[in-house]
Design a protein that fits this description.
2 domains, alpha/beta, 11 strands
Length: about 210
């Protein structure tokens, strides 16, 4: 279980949010939304441990994520705005290196299978610098097919994807939720997130006040 307790994040001289608390259970998806600059990406990065919040804490199964250190980060996969790939490496090399760095090494065959499944058949061993933006996004997202992490944190994962790829990614997310995984995501696109348990959290100003 993930718990966010009284979290506060500040950027420059502006407080993005404070006293923010929620929990996420196995089989649940949290749709995080709000206007640009409301702190969605900052919150996601704080949960991952990529930045330190000003106040509050993130708990994993009741324990501080900071104290758990690698035991927590191995349970999390974060896909941000950038694809997190190196242009001079192939899709196969990028995927295997990313998984190794995440503490979840995979075989070359697993990498070939994942890239084919995500729609990159014929481009698996090409330098990613020659791929389209949509194809590069697929390389970055292919980690979801092989990683063992229980918590997925996805920041605008559907960006640059065509209709077929959006549909495929939705099915991957649904499968993860159905298997007891947890997902936090942001998206500006009209997509069917999942038939499972969906929670929604808005950051920023709205009519009844500030979250």
């Amino acid at each position: 279980m993930l718990q966010v307790v009284d979290l506060e994040c500040v950027r420059g001289d502006r407080r993005l949010f404070s006293e923010l608390s929620f929990e996420l259970l196995p089989g649940e998806l949290l749709h995080l939304y709000g206007h640009n600059g409301s702190g969605k990406t900052t919150l996601m990065r704080a949960i991952c441990g990529l930045i330190q919040p000003t106040a509050g804490e993130v708990l994993w199964n009741g324990e501080s994520s900071r104290k758990l250190a690698e035991d927590f980060t191995q349970e999390v996969i974060y896909v941000g705005h950038k694809n997190g790939i190196k242009d001079d490496l192939s899709g196969i090399e990028n995927l295997r290196i990313s998984c190794a760095l995440d503490g979840c090494p995979i075989s070359e065959q697993q990498a070939w299978d994942a890239l084919e499944e995500i729609g990159l058949r014929g481009q698996e061993d090409l330098p990613t610098q020659v791929l389209s933006q949509g194809q590069k996004r697929r390389v970055g997202l292919s980690r979801l097919l092989v990683h063992k992490a229980r918590l997925w944190i996805l920041d605008e994962p559907f960006t640059a994807l065509d209709k077929a790829a959006v549909g495929f990614l939705q099915s991957v997310i649904r499968r993860h939720i159905d298997q007891g995984g947890m997902v936090i995501l942001t998206t500006h696109q009209e997509v069917t997130l999942t038939e499972g348990q969906v929670k929604r959290l808005q950051l920023g100003w709205k009519e009844e006040g500030h979250v």
